[in-house]
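Human: Here is a favour to ask of a fellow structure person. Comparing notes only helps if you start from a blank page. I am asking you to supply a protein in sequence and structure-token form. Write it directly below this note and I will take it from there.

Assistant:
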Amino acid sequence: MREVCALIAGGLALLAFTLGVGVGSHFSAKSLAKLQAEIGVATKVHEAELQRLTEYGQQLEAQLKQRNVQIRTVTKEIVREIPKLVGDGVCINPGWVRVHDAAAAGVSVGASEFVGPAPDVTAARAAEVVAQNYGECLIWREQLLGWQKWHGEETESKKRINSILRAQ
């Protein structure tokens, strides 16, 4: 009798194990298929977002190239026009040069810096340097704004991908 009970218990255990493995593998295959589907969706969304951000970066690059052309054009025009306004070869006060350079560096200088003319700094050359400096500032501003916008777009892109994955 004991042997029959042990045999029945062993048979039931074997049946439970077989059913458990079968059901478990079915759930595992189902989970794996769902995970693969989520990965496929996430990959497609990521590729689309990457393409969009790449195109945006290319637009920014084109804008910066265009800005560089504008700066060069304005600088040439200023250098050509300044002598007409102040005279050809007119030299500016070296103090003005020092004050301008100090302002560009973010430091202050006293009024005593303005002394006689500097024979090697013409008004045209000073205007050229100022135009180039302002042009560089405009480029840096556009780059900063572009990076800020790109970062915001990237953050939104990640949020969109995560919300799509959570909805699956």
